[in-house]
Design brief:
Structural class of chain A: mainly alpha
Number of helices of chain B: 11
Shape of chain B: elongated
CATH class of chain A: Mainly Alpha
Largest interface: A-B, 93 and 107 residues
Order of helices and strands of chain A: HHEHHHEEHHHEEHHHEHHHHHHH
Number of strands of chain A: 6
Number of strands of chain B: 63
CATH class of one domain in chain B: Mainly Beta
Shape of chain A: globular
Distance between the termini of chain A: 63 Å
CATH architecture of one domain in chain B: Beta Complex
Number of domains of chain A: 1
CATH topology of chain A: Serine Threonine Protein Phosphatase 5, Tetratricopeptide repeat
Oligomer: heterodimer
Distance between the termini of chain B: 58 Å
Strand content of chain A: under 5%
Number of helices of chain A: 18
Largest sheet of chain B: 22 strands, antiparallel, barrel
CATH topology of one domain in chain B: Ferric Hydroxamate Uptake Protein, Chain A, domain 1
């Protein structure tokens, strides 16, 4: 019977290249599909507004979004873990370099989970039969562990040993670039705890910056392809044409218009009506009439099938260094220099000519006395399409326009615990069913499982 | 002494010949005058003392068969002739009598002289055969066949209605079958005791005494008798005396599914069987039917009854296990493949409910077995029996949601607390003159000039302006560049109360069936053909089915009989409705989201001359692209699905009667089908897409049985069966799907703009089994049956894959012992049984997922479902007890059963936290228990020669409960989630320790200590988290009441079925309210007045927050508080009414037929009572899976009227 009960459609072994391709795609697919990037990230960042059925932008969380994001565990993270496990079982078949790359990617995802939810399963996670109900670790402790994990991976890298070949699609297994990405993720971790743990933050950021972070041309991107089914998860070439779910948010369009930001024609399309750029007020439950005529759709580039899944960019690194410098951390360069590099790099990313970029930079000069708003607004403009990262930065920096007036508007919130913006997502309902004790403990530990609970790094 | 004798005694020598001229031995000839006797020898010769002119009586085994007048010959041959006559010929000298005669060896060739003596048959024959010579005209003539004398007759029931296919068994085991019209023609063997039996009737033995008279046989119906010889078909098709059955078996005659036809015959059983719950989703449009016997026991995917047709296990799962479809996420319900059976072939349906009844089927029968016996043979006496039936029926949409007809399309403004209705948009001539055909618009503004009013096309809700006849520009009045004939036209903003009803056309189904059957003592055969042609109620939706069936038996010799059957069916359907939350489901586009004012006639204009879609849900006046909804006529005509299934099932085998007490049989059973399913998304504003699924399913069973029947002494008899079975199953499903068509309207893989993604699925399984069954009878009234079965299943890990399970059952007919006058019959039965179950293949070994691609890079991922190499078989133990009582001369009957079943080591794909790295773990967990009561009551309040009234009531209650979960390493897990509805991801069907199977979980109202609902400051109810129990899918009880009246040749019957309790979560109500489509959203001027939701604020004070109706219906119902859209599934339904008339025989004769019966019927006639608004609670399932209680936009139920004509030749 043994042969009869062996599934002939499924392999019993897997080469690491095939595992890493799947893990990178799975991670990017989760973070950039409509449920996570669309209905959470791009809305909570007030980049986009919903057309009709505005309940997501009014913070009634669609559990499908939640389940999708939580699916990182049994999807991408589990497969990254498998690379690490195979390496520990047989280092000849899966090199330590490959395991280290897998670990670095897992840091990216764990930090995202810890930033979105707070305490999440970490040490007990991904142990299969040993523990189907993992404990939720403190988000702060996870941060500490992630930093250690990154340091450990960089130390493992050994150019004399083999690495991924064709299957690793972000850097083709290039250890130098992976080292820089590891340090950049460390920089992201460090800067995010700047308000909550200033000493630790300073130490982590300075170490990361010194060790070498992403440089121009080093953007960590998952390269989606133009043909189905390998396209960017939310694009206008698969399915029904231009997605109808979103139009541009008035918050973004008005701000960019006021700054004469050259990226606006990339970020948005002109309206069908008069050809101007118009955004819809955010999350008010307004009558939905001629939304598709009077408001701008997101731009063709961001709905392109080969738009990349962004892991981390040089531009973001420069914004982090700018903030580090502004906070007085010992990083090379000035806050202003990093700030200008960040904007220029982002303009380049979006295909804006250097002259236009430089002209723009002069109109939005760095303001050291007002660095939080200065860096905050420009970082927000630069993080377009990275909805989750942008939402977290919005919450953390709690910036306003550089003139001190409110940038973001309050929606008609359908969640009584949230007025302006959710500080986190509630844990998936399914955890209440399948991991009940830890789910309830975690909710208590962070001060209540609501979207209004401030996470540990949020001191604003 | 013999002075009265007419002449002097003489001895005559003769020879007795049968009709066919063969010598007849062992007959006694007796001289009437002399009383002398002689017995015919092997060669038929006799020598008898007679008087001249004497009459000679022929006696066989004490029965007088006839008499003849002695011919004027001393040596003669006497031969039986037709018409109770005898033929005489001189006896040839060459053939001397073997003994007793020393004379007459000289042939008397010269005086050949025919003589005919006619003597009536004796009138003093045995009492067993009543005579009524006046009736002979109504009975077919006796006839002659190749080798024997035949006797003809008619089998009737108490009301003198013919009994179809009566079975006649001779003492040597040979059997014959009557015709559908009740007549039979069987070989005449003088003095033979033959048994007449028919399903549902008490068997009766008759001694054959005369062949020249029609033999009327009247059988009493089983329900009306002591069941002394009633035969029950039990597991493996073994026939058992009704008395000997120690567990509940309920039977239904085939006519139930033949007259009032359902496309899937299973639906016609609804309400007729106790302990059996049948749920559907618009069966007449090809949807699934779920048959649950004695409630849910397992928390895995399958609680469906097993269907076995003449020993053939019938695959009945849906072709592709689409989880998304089951949870109401869209897709198609391809219906239950059991509907491949031609209802006209069905003779009887037996339902084996408990573990003891199904023990011999092993694991596969653990959810109960529906055993179908098909018709065999037919015709008789060398004559073919031919039947023809014609059925025509009409389907009309019945239960539709109650819509509001006061407001049209438009979206709500939730920012405005005083919102009543949205307004029209304005199209200014000055800004868009190209959008006007002539003039400058309907309206004029003194400043801005002419304009038209436009509805909010892109809004697929009905919170728009009041429908008062305003002149507007409808969605179809733009697109001049597409040569739109309606460009520039206006329309009036008016209610369209019947637009949804008018979308559904009248369905029509025609079925023609013909069968030919024959039987002789050499064997039987039956050949049938049926064609069903159906026009679904949806536009462009059709279904057809052709069934060809054959079965036959052939007696190779007196010991060996060969059997074979083959059935072939082809099903083709196009345009099945989509289900659940998807645009292919008409309910979604009419009842979940829509604009109420849509004109159905204009919706039919779904395509512009250039082939692009005309969408009512266009993005704007200048952009014809659909915003959300696809126009239903576009879906029906361009984006339709199609599927077909061809199926072959049959068996071949031999039965050997090795000795008088030992029977052996060996059989092979085959069920095989191939399906093709194609789903299309047209290329238009969309890129299009195509999904094709090919499936080949095959199951083979090789079965060997040995049966021993023996009497031991005078008091005991024993029947024992031992057997073995090898089951092999192979199911191969290949799905290919792609997005993006190169050119429109071509659907194949070459037309893919991108890469096709293929998903293979190959399912192989084998179970080897041995089993045995011993029944010991005592005094013909107490029976003990013991069974045992051992299975070896390929799906379980080595070491755990062999499992044995026994059963014991006892029946005692105590009325044989306690002779109470009021009690006609009393039987007690009790049983205890165990059943072991295996699982699906490939759950024991670790493997990666199916490989895939990204660009040119291979992808392999871990399988997120964790397998388990320690799986054990599931074990169920059931205790059952029952009582059968008949009172008042069998006029009232009661059959009651109680049972309790415990199942442990349930094999489930346990949903685990994804944080463990897996989504599911295959585990043996838990313990569940089902307890219940089943009652069947029968009564005949009126019984007379011409009129009878029968009542049948069945009632059953079942309580299934999860007792424990015992998840390994995780003792605090208390629930198993079977499925979660797709759109909100909030409401789940769940098994929770200590709760019924299954409960619904989701968000409930938050209440204060006093039970008041708590409202937040914006007037919205505060929901709890989603782990609360908000309903149970388990009904309190289900049942049915049937009444039938028979007056002469007219019969009238009515069936009411009911369910009490059970609840479901309703998308139709939740979204229908949120979208402002349902009547309550516009009742009592609620839009104008708004509403103050009742409840208290967080500080305990009564909430006074006043909100708009739109806000209330969008935010205070299921989208927030799931419990607000959970409804009671109780119903009382007039399910069926049938009126039948059997035409006078002379009419039948006029077309050379025997019988003509015509019936009128209606099904799903009247939902008499329901507590659930807007849906038909008996018609809400998405599929036949365990994921129940989630109504995902169910289709409207259908009401059916039909006529059935049945002609027998």
């Amino acid at each position: 019977f043994t042969g009869l009960n062996t599934d002939p459609t499924k392999p019993s072994t897997a080469p690491p290249d095939a595992l890493i391709t799947g893990a990178e795609k799975a991670a990017s697919d989760v973070l950039y599909n409509n449920f996570v990037n669309g209905k959470i990230g791009m809305l909570y960042s007030q980049y986009w507004s919903q057309t009709q059925k505005e309940s997501d932008s009014q913070y009634k969380l669609d559990e499908a979004c939640n389940n999708t994001l939580w699916g990182l565990y049994s999807g991408a993270l589990s497969n990254l873990q498998e690379v690490v496990r195979l390496s520990s079982v047989n280092a000849a078949a899966v090199s330590p370099n490959e395991a280290a790359i897998a670990n670095i990617l897992s840091v990216w995802l764990y930090q995202t989970l810890a930033d979105v939810y707070g305490n999440v399963p970490y040490h007990d996670a991904l142990t299969g039969l040993n523990n189907f109900t993992p404990h939720y670790d403190s988000a702060q402790a996870i941060y500490d562990s992630l930093v250690q994990k990154l340091d450990a991976q960089v130390a493992v890298f050994d150019t004399t040993k083999s690495t991924f070949k064709t299957g690793e699609l972000i850097y083709q297994g290039n250890l130098t670039k992976w080292r820089k990405l590891a340090n950049s993720l460390k920089l992201r971790i460090g800067i995010r705890m700047a308000d909550a743990a200033p000493e630790k933050s300073k130490q982590v950021v300075e170490a990361a910056a010194a060790a070498g972070v992403l440089q121009p041309g080093d953007d960590a991107l998952f390269p989606y392809l133009a043909t189905t089914p390998d396209q960017f998860p939310f694009n206008e070439q698969s399915g029904t044409g231009i997605p109808n779910d979103y139009v541009m948010c008035k918050t973004l369009v008005d701000f960019m218009t006021s700054l004469k930001d050259p990226r606006l024609p990339v970020y948005a399309r002109p309206t069908k009506g008069d050809g101007s750029y118009q955004g819809k007020p955010y999350g008010l439950g307004l009558p939905f009439g001629n939304d598709f005529t009077v408001y701008s759709y997101p731009g063709t580039r961001v709905y392109a099938p080969d738009f990349p899944g962004i892991v981390c960019t040089y531009s973001e690194v420069e914004f982090a260094l700018a903030e580090a410098a502004a906070r007085g951390y010992a990083v090379s360069g000035t806050a202003e220099g990093h700030y200008q590099n960040a904007i220029a790099a982002n303009m380049k990313f979006w295909g804006i000519a250097d002259t236009a970029a430089q002209a723009y930079i002069t109109t939005v000069p760095y303001d050291a006395a007002n660095w939080r708003n200065s860096i905050g607004t420009q970082k927000w403009l630069a993080l377009y399409m990275q909805g989750i990262q942008s939402w977290i930065e919005r919450v953390r920096l709690n910036f306003k326009k550089t003139d001190g007036s409110d940038l973001f508007t309050a929606p008609n919130s359908l969640d009584p615990t949230v007025q302006l913006v959710p500080y986190r997502l509630t844990y998936p309902i399914s955890e209440g069913n399948v991991n009940s004790t830890n789910y309830h403990q975690a909710g208590e530990a962070i001060g209540g499982d609501t979207k209004g609970t401030k996470l540990w790094w949020n001191r604003n | 002494l013999f002075a009265m004798a007419q002449g002097s005694p003489k001895t005559v020598n003769g020879k007795l010949l049968g009709l066919d001229g063969t010598p007849q031995s062992g007959y006694t000839l007796q001289s009437k005058a002399l009383q002398s006797q002689a017995t015919t020898a092997d060669d038929g010769r006799f020598s008898l003392k007679t008087n001249a002119g004497d009459s000679i009586i022929i006696i066989f085994q004490s029965a007088k068969l006839g008499a003849f007048k002695l011919p004027d010959m001393d040596n003669f041959q006497v031969q039986f002739a037709e018409g109770n006559k005898f033929k005489f010929t001189p006896l040839a000298a060459a053939t001397p009598a073997a003994d007793s005669s020393g004379v007459g060896k000289t042939p008397q060739t010269d005086s050949l002289k025919k003589d005919t003596g006619v003597v009536n048959a004796p009138h003093d024959s045995t009492a067993a055969v009543p005579h009524d010579s006046t009736k002979t005209a109504a009975v077919p003539d006796t006839s002659k066949t190749g080798d024997s004398v035949m006797v003809k007759g008619t089998a009737t029931d108490f009301a003198n209605h013919p009994i179809a296919f009566v079975n006649v068994t001779y003492s040597n085991g040979k059997s014959y079958t009557g015709t559908e019209s009740g007549t039979f023609s069987i070989p005449f063997k003088p003095g033979e005791t033959v048994k007449f039996s028919a399903v549902g009737y008490e068997a009766k033995t008759v001694v054959l005494t005369a062949f020249d008279k029609p033999l009327p046989v009247q059988l009493n119906s089983a329900a009306n008798t002591q069941q002394l010889q009633e035969v029950k078909v039990t597991a493996l098709g073994l026939s058992k005396k009704g008395k000997a059955v120690g567990y509940s078996v309920q039977e239904v005659k085939g006519d139930v599914v033949q007259t009032a036809k359902e496309t899937n015959f299973v639906n016609a059983l609804q309400g007729r069987l106790s302990g059996v719950q049948i749920n559907g989703n618009s069966g007449s449009m090809g949807g699934s039917t779920k048959v649950t016997i004695r409630g849910n026991k397992s928390i895995t995917g399958n609680n469906n009854a097993l269907f076995v047709v003449d020993g053939i296990f019938m695959g009945n799962n849906n072709p592709v296990p689409s989880y998304n479809q089951q949870i109401g996420g869209g897709g198609y319900d391809y219906g239950s493949p059991i509907q491949d059976i031609n209802p006209d072939d069905i003779d009887q349906v037996s339902v084996l409910k408990g573990a003891a009844a199904t023990a011999l089927y092993g694991s596969r029968g653990s959810n109960g077995v529906v055993l179908i016996t098909t018709k065999k043979g037919g015709g008789s006496g060398g004559k073919l029996g031919i039947t023809y039936s014609f059925n025509a029926q009409m389907d009309k949409v019945y239960k539709l949601p109650g819509y509001q007809n006061r407001y049209g399309g438009g979206s709500a403004n939730l920012a405005d607390p005083n919102f009543v209705a949205s307004s029209f948009d304005t199209l200014w001539y000055s800004k868009n003159p190209e959008q006007f055909a002539s003039g400058q618009g309907t309206y004029t503004d003194p400043v801005k000039g002419g304009y038209d009013l436009m509805p909010q096309f892109a809004a697929d809700e009905s919170w728009g302006p009041e429908l008062k006849g305003q002149v507007i520009r409808p969605y179809y009045s733009f697109d001049r560049d597409k040569n739109n004939p309606y460009f520039g036209t206006t329309s009036k903003w008016l209610p369209q109360p019947d637009n949804v009803r008018d979308f559904y056309r009248t369905g029509l189904t025609f079925t023609n069936s013909v069968s030919v059957g024959g039987s002789s003592d050499k064997g039987t055969f039956r050949l049938s053909y049926s064609n069903l042609s159906q026009k679904f109620m949806l536009p462009n939706a059709n279904n057809s089915r052709n069934n060809l069936g054959f079965n036959g038996t052939y007696k190779v010799n007196s010991a060996i009989t060969a059997l074979a059957s083959a059935n072939y069916s082809v099903n083709r359907a196009t345009g099945r409705p989509g289900t659940g939350f998807s645009g292919t489901n008409p309910t979604e586009v009419f009842s979940l989201y829509s604009q109420r004012q849509l004109e159905i006639d204009k919706l039919k204009y779904y395509q512009f001359p250039d082939g692009s879609q005309v969408s009512w849900n266009r993005k704007s006046f200048s952009d014809p692209t659909p915003a959300s909804a696809t126009t239903p006529y576009w879906t029906a005509n361009k984006g339709y699905e199609s599927d077909n299934r061809s199926r072959l099932f049959g068996m071949a085998g031999v039965e050997v009667k090795a000795t008088s007490w030992l029977n052996l049989s060996g059989k092979v059973f085959l069920d095989q089908f191939s399906t093709l399913q194609e789903e299309r998304i047209p290329k238009d504003y969309q890129t299009g897409g195509y999904t094709r699924t090919d499936r080949t399913f095959q199951e083979l069973n090789y079965q060997f049985l040995a049966t021993v029947r023996k009497d031991i002494g005078k008091k005991f008899d024993i029947t024992a069966t031992a057997g073995g079975n090898i089951m092999q199953q192979r199911d191969e499903i290949n799905t290919g799907t792609f997005t993006g068509l190169i050119v429109p309207d071509i659907y194949n893989y070459r037309n893919a703009a991108g890469r096709v993604t293929y998903t293979p699925y190959l399912f192989r399984k084998q179970i080897n089994s041995v089993f045995g069954d011993v029944t010991i009878g005592y005094m013909n009234s107490v029976y003990l049956e013991l069974t045992g079965r051992n299975d070896w299943a390929s799906t379980l890990p080595a070491g755990n894959n062999s499992y044995f399970y026994p059963s014991a059952s006892l029946s005692a007919v105590f009325s044989d012992w306690v002779k109470w006058k009021w009690l006609s019959f009393g039987k007690f039965r009790a049983s205890v049984a165990q059943i072991g179950s295996d699982t699906d293949p490939y759950r024991t070994q670790l493997a990666y997922g199916i490989p895939g691609l990204f660009g040119s890079n291979p992808i392999i991922a871990k399988d997120p479902n964790l397998n388990n190499n320690q799986l054990l078989p599931e074990k169920s133990t059931e205790v059952e007890a029952g009582l059968e009582l008949k009172f008042l001369n069998n006029r009232v009957g009661l059959d009651a059963t109680v049972y309790s079943r415990t199942t442990k080591n349930l094999i489930v794909p346990l949903q685990v936290s994804p944080t463990s790295g897996y989504n599911y773990y295959f585990a043996n967990i838990g313990k569940s228990r089902s307890r219940g009561l089943e009652i069947e009551l029968t009564g005949r309040p009126v019984e007379s020669k011409n009129f009878t009234w029968d009542i049948g009531v069945n009632y059953s209650m079942n309580r299934s409960k999860l007792l424990a979960l015992n998840v390994p390493n995780n003792p605090d897990v208390d629930r198993y989630i079977v499925g979660t509805e797709r759109r909100r991801n909030s409401v789940s069907t769940a098994a929770i320790v200590g709760q019924p199977l299954f409960v619904l979980t989701g968000t409930d109202y938050t209440r204060d200590a006093g039970g008041n609902k708590i409202l937040d400051t914006s007037g919205h109810y505060v929901p709890t988290d989603a782990t609360h129990i908000i309903g149970s899918t388990q009904p309190k009880f289900v049942g049915g009441v049937s009444n039938s009246f028979t007056y002469k040749h007219i019969s009238l019957s009515a069936l009411i079925d009911f369910q009490n309790g059970g609840s479901f979560f309703s998308y139709t109500n939740m979204y229908g309210l949120a979208s402002g489509l349902l009547d309550v959203t516009a009742a009592n001027n609620i839009r104008e007045t708004g509403i103050t939701p009742v409840g208290v604020t967080a500080d305990g004070k009564e909430s006074t927050k006043h909100i708009s109706a739109a806000d209330h219906f969008k935010n205070n119902f299921g989208t927030n508080v799931n419990a607000a859209n959970v409804y009671d599934a109780s119903y009382v339904y007039l399910r069926e009414v049938r009126l039948g008339y059997e035409l006078p025989e002379r009419w039948a004769k006029a077309i050379k037929g025997r019988t003509i019966k015509i019936s009128l019927y209606g099904r799903n006639l009247w939902l008499i009572h329901s507590n659930a608004p807007n849906v038909d609670p008996s018609n809400i399932i998405n599929s036949d899976s365990n994921i129940q209680g989630l109504e995902g936009g169910a289709l409207p139920s259908t009401r059916t009227y039909g006529v059935n004509l049945n002609v027998g030749f």
